[in-house]
Structure of DUF4367 domain-containing protein:
Amino acid sequence: MRRLGVHMALFSSVLVLAGCMESPQDELMKGVSSARAVFEEPAPEPNESTGGTDLYVPGGYELQDPSDDYNLLLTRGNEAFALSLNPNEAPDSTFYYDLQKAMPEETWLVDEKFSHHGRFGFTTVREIADERYELVVSSGGTKLSTITEQNAMRQNMNWMMETVRSVEASQEE
């Protein structure tokens, strides 16, 4: 009888843990919601500067020496994040979004646009390989992209939007 109680307790624990796991779609939607909230909040203060661009880089990420003033690389371990800057674009620019949509054959798991106080932003996600995703986050003339795994998607959407917003805000000043 005692053995049955142990098995029932173990089975109950597994059910509880399984109930706590989120589906991939739920995780994506929470990431989008987080990115939208960051987009609508005041931009974080820049803590890095390179080539006349001020930006916020979260702890643990490194800004690599740029090859030019408009294409920067952020890294964390073996992850790389490409930051593209187009200073000719206004905060309400849809330039990078239009480029994303130029290939209608692409299938996007996430394609969310944001607009707030005269600014335009977006986040897109597409699967490029088994459990590998291209994530793009943008605000006005600033775009940040990476290849990521699903379990890092929400966190990446959040800090990436903070970073692109910090660039846009510093250019508006």
